[in-house]
UniProtKB/TrEMBL annotation:
Principal location listed in the UniProt entry: secreted
Similarity-based family: Belongs to the peptidase A1 family.
Name this polypeptide is given: Pregnancy-associated glycoprotein 8
Gene that encodes the chain: PAG8
Entry-linked Pfam families: A1_Propeptide (PF07966), Asp (PF00026)
Residue span, Peptidase A1 domain: 71-384
Organism: Bos taurus
Length: 387
């Protein structure tokens, strides 16, 4: 009996495919979902450069660039396989990589896919354009074999970028993006990678999970087909998805020191591995920054002296009746020994179609604290403190 149980466990854990993620500091805030970003692009008040002050030794632009981190991992496309680094993004649903045809600087700095070198590639002759907060790509659709760890998907439709914006997409350490949100966010007529894994039963359970480490000794991980429970402490708390587009849930309160700082009438929270910070409505973020940072430095409401960290309150988020604390050493990032950066950002008031007047995006700042499970079988998100 004991042996049977043991064998059962081994078989189960073998069904989970784990892809290690590299964490790297990057230029600006990482990638965001295209819908979000279309809106962001129109609006410049949050432009980072607006805050920079050429007279200062450190412009806040540089500070922010320095502080943001992205996580990415390896996939292959084609036969024989061509290897790419992709950002596994729960805030979008498309897969794309640069094409060998792309001459933009942001493509030549990255690995480019060569369809001629793949015997399984099929062109689709459909033009596409994707717009993210961090930039945009124009290209065409094609289909080929994709491999993620030992998971193989034949005839996966993906984008080949032929023209990419400079700026963030040029600076990021990954080549392309692999979206893990719902199919309703994907380019019309295409099936996202995870839907193919699920529908063709390449994986045993229709779930994936993220462990984003905050410590260098721990390796970040995305896992497909099951949950390795050694990556979290305590029980997973399940939260129903409210709209099957983003990984979106209902949040009921946000407090600091007993003061309501957001979500006073209830709100929606988007759990997004492709966003670095905690993003909310500008007027609320402005008030939070005033509350926690009455004496900004470098002319920037997000910059403060690191001495302040010990006296700052913990942010408490209540989701589905459970309180998720976010202590100051998580929502504050260190730029240098003395200069710190508050990881809140405004801008979500311009988001549409989220069925709410108040939206918060819980990015990597939150996900370093909480291991997250995305369950397409039951349309729910599981959260537990990261191990
Ligand atoms: C790439 O896109 C930019 C902006 O839309 C445009 O000005 C440029 O001509 C395009 N380049 C190519 C090679 O298509
Ligand atoms: C993270 O590292 C610590 C210290 O080495 C270790 O105790 C812990 O088990 C690691 N956690 C995971 C999930 O690997």
């Amino acid at each position: 009996m004991k042996w049977l149980v043991l064998l059962g466990l081994v078989a189960l854990s073998e069904c989970i495919v784990k892809i290690p993620l590299t964490k790297m500091k990057t230029m600006q805030e990482a990638i965001r979902e295209k819908q979000l970003l279309e809106d962001f692009l129109d609006e410049q008040p949050h432009s980072l450069s607006q805050h920079s002050d050429p007279d200062k030794k450190f412009s806040s632009h540089q500070l922010k660039n320095f502080q943001n981190a992205v996580y990415f991992g390896t996939i292959t496309i084609g036969t024989p396989p061509q290897e790419f680094q992709v950002n596994f993004d729960t805030g979008s649903s498309d897969l794309w990589v640069p094409s060998v045809d792309c001459q933009s600087p942001s493509c030549s700095k990255h690995k480019r896919f060569d369809p001629q070198k793949s015997t399984t590639f099929q062109p689709l002759n459909q033009k596409i354009e994707l717009v993210y907060g961090s930039g945009s790509m124009k290209g065409v659709l094609g289909s080929d074999t994709i491999q993620i760890g030992n998971l193989v998907i034949v005839n996966q439709i993906f984008g080949l970028s032929q023209n990419q914006s400079s700026g963030v997409l040029e600076q990021v350490p990954y080549d392309g993006i692999l979206g893990l949100a719902y199919p309703s966010l994907a380019i019309q007529g295409t099936t996202p990678v995870f839907d193919n894994l699920k529908n063709r039963e390449v994986i045993s359970e229709p779930v994936f999970a993220f462990y984003l480490s905050s410590r260098p000794e721990n390796i970040s991980m995305v896992m497909f087909g099951g949950v390795d429970h050694t990556y979290h402490k305590g029980k997973l708390q399940w939260i129903p998805v409210t709209q099957a587009r983003f990984w979106q849930v209902a949040m009921s309160s946000m407090t600091m020191n007993g003061n309501v700082v957001g979500c006073s009438q209830g709100c929606q929270a988007v759990v997004d591995t492709g966003t670095s910070l905690l993003v909310g409505p500008t007027h609320l973020v402005t008030d939070i920054l005033k509350l926690i940072n009455p004496n900004p430095i470098l002319n920037d409401e997000q910059m403060l002296s690191c001495d302040a960290i010990n006296s700052l309150p913990t942010l408490l988020l209540t989701i589905n009746g459970i309180v998720y604390p976010v202590p100051p050493d998580y929502y504050i990032q260190r730029f240098s020994e003395r200069i710190c950066f508050i990881s809140f950002q405004g801008g979500t008031e311009i988001l549409k179609n989220l069925g709410t007047s108040e939206t918060w995006i819980l990015g990597d700042v939150f996900l370093r604290l909480y291991f997250s499970v995305y369950d397409r079988g039951n349309n729910r998100i599981g959260l537990a403190p990261a191990a």
